Structures are given as C-alpha cells and as structure tokens.
C-alpha cells in the first residue's frame, strides 16, 4: 500500500503547478465550494493511478488544485465511504497521498443528521470531537512510517482553527454551533432508537464519513478542522423521514455560509 501511495503522489507531483499546504474534503451536496477555487486545474479520480472512484450521487469525483482565499489549496470534490465497499485503507488513501504532497492542514466537511434538540436543519456545527462507531479502524494492520503506532487523539480537531472559525463567524454574522460528531458505517439512515442512543452517549450529529479521514490525517501530523451541515434531524418525539435527495438540498442551501467561513480561515491561516 505504501508503494502505491508513493506512486500516486509522484504522478500528481509531476503534473502539479502549485504547492498547496491546505486540503479540503467536500461532502455530500457541498461541491459548490469548488466553483470558488480560482486558477484551477483538476484530475478525475478515474485518471489518478491507484485512486478509488466515488460512487455516491452528490460526489463529483475529482481532485482540484487552485487558489482559495489567496492561498494554494487542493480539494477533493467527493470522498470515499466504507459503505461503498472500500476498505478503510482505501477510504483514507487520499489523506496518505496528501501527506506525501506536503499538506499540513485539512478541512473536512460533511452533511450530517442532528440529534441535539437545539439544532435546526441548515445549522453549521463546528466539530469539537468525534466518536468512532466504524467496525474497522483505518490504522489497523502494519503501522505506516508517518506516525506512531498509538497516536494521541485528545485534540483531533485543532483548537486554534476552531477558535479562528468562531471569530470569523462572529465578524460576518453567521451563527455556528459546536458539537461531537458520531461516525457510523451506513448506508442506512439511523432509526429513532439509534439517534437516541448516540445522543445519550454524547453525540450531537451523526454521519457516515469524516472520522477515518481525521484519524489518518492526525496520524500523519496534519492539523484538522471539521464542520458539519445539519441536513436532517432525528431522535426526537416525532419521527422524521429523510432521503438522500433532501440531504443534498439542505446541504446546498447552507453551503454559502460554510464557504465564507472556510475561505476566510484559509486566507488568515
């Protein structure tokens, strides 16, 4: 696997005309941020050696390079999920490649279900911490030379970046929430009882991504900022049905606020 990572990084490096230190992962329905990237060039996942291919609607499936907030960045428009049948090594392959390309800061975004009764559809939740419910761990197996066998996770989501986001949100008048993200396998949405369980265990939002990516990024020493768009609600007294299409619509409506915060964070970081 490590040889494949090196091969992919080398292929990209030969074709890159920029030197990004920041990467962004765009979740379900959040691809519009890609249109904010200037001086861009991109590679479809299908053309990149060893790269998995996203199979989920709302995930375009290309790696974009360019500028955002006046800084060189790279962005994944579409991510990979465990429920698609990929192993955790494949799900987190891009983060390994990012490290080889010199990425130092990773912004992760996702659409998630809110189970905090104070949340509403369209809210932005800055991720303070996570709970890992995936049945397979991305660091399972032989340890990669990019980090320790037992990496510390007491600050998976960088406090300095969270504070920066809070300050920017206050300046521009965007309300943000904070909370704990629960990462689950999917692809089913949660039952009301599952929502209530995750809430009792300390979760504020739940989704089917992000956690493996963050674990591997931290193993590589990459700083992480995470943000969830609350696209549906669950676990309350009245059951609420949800569809993937509704999630995409809610994410699409809220993403201009997320884009504004991220763009300014990148400009100042």
UniProtKB/TrEMBL annotation:
GO BP terms, alphabetized: nucleoside metabolic process
CDD domains linked: PNP-EcPNPII_like
Origin species: Segatella hominis
Biochemical pathway: Purine metabolism; purine nucleoside salvage
EC number, UniProt record: 2.4.2.1
Name of the protein: Purine nucleoside phosphorylase
Domain Nucleoside phosphorylase: 22-267
Record-linked InterPro entries: Nucleoside_phosphorylase_d, Nucleoside_phosphorylase_sf, Pur_Nuc_Pase_Ino/Guo-sp, Purine_phosphorylase
Coiled-coil parts of chain: none
Keywords: Glycosyltransferase, Phosphoprotein, Transferase
Keyword Ion transport: no
SUPFAM superfamilies given in the database record: Purine and uridine phosphorylases (SSF53167)
A Pfam family annotated for this UniProt entry: PNP_UDP_1
Gene Ontology CC annotations of this record: cytoplasm
Free-text function comment from the UniProt entry: The purine nucleoside phosphorylases catalyze the phosphorolytic breakdown of the N-glycosidic bond in the beta-(deoxy)ribonucleoside molecules, with the formation of the corresponding free purine bases and pentose-1-phosphate.
A GO molecular-function descriptor: purine-nucleoside phosphorylase activity
Family label: Belongs to the PNP/MTAP phosphorylase family.
């Amino acid at each position: 696997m490590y040889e494949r990572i090196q091969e992919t990084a080398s292929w990209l490096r030969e074709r890159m005309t920029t030197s990004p230190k920041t990467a962004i992962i765009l979740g379900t329905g959040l691809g519009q941020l890609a249109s904010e990237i200037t001086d861009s060039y991109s590679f479809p996942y299908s053309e990149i050696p060893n790269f998995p291919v996203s199979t989920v609607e709302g995930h375009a499936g290309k790696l974009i390079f360019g500028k955002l907030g006046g800084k060189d960045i790279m962005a994944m428009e579409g991510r990979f999920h465990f429920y698609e049948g990929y192993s955790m090594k494949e799900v987190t392959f891009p983060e390994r490649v990012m490290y080889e390309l010199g990425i130092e800061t990773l912004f992760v975004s996702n659409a998630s279900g809110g189970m905090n009764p104070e949340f509403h559809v369209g809210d932005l939740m800055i991720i303070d911490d996570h709970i890992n419910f995936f049945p397979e761990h991305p660091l399972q197996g032989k340890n990669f030379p990019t980090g320790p066998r037992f990496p510390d996770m007491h600050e998976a989501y960088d406090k300095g970046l969270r504070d920066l986001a809070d300050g920017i949100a206050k300046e521009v008048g965007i309300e943000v929430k904070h909370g704990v993200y629960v990462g689950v396998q999917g692809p089913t949405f949660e039952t009301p009882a599952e929502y209530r369980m995750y809430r009792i265990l300390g979760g504020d939002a739940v989704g089917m991504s992000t956690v493996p990516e963050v674990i591997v990024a931290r193993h590589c020493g990459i700083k992480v900022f995470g943000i969830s768009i609350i696209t549906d609600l669950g676990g309350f007294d009245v059951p609420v049905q949800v569809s993937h299409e509704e999630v995409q619509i809610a994410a699409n409506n809220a993403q201009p606020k997320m884009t504004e915060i991220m763009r300014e964070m990148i400009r100042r970081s």
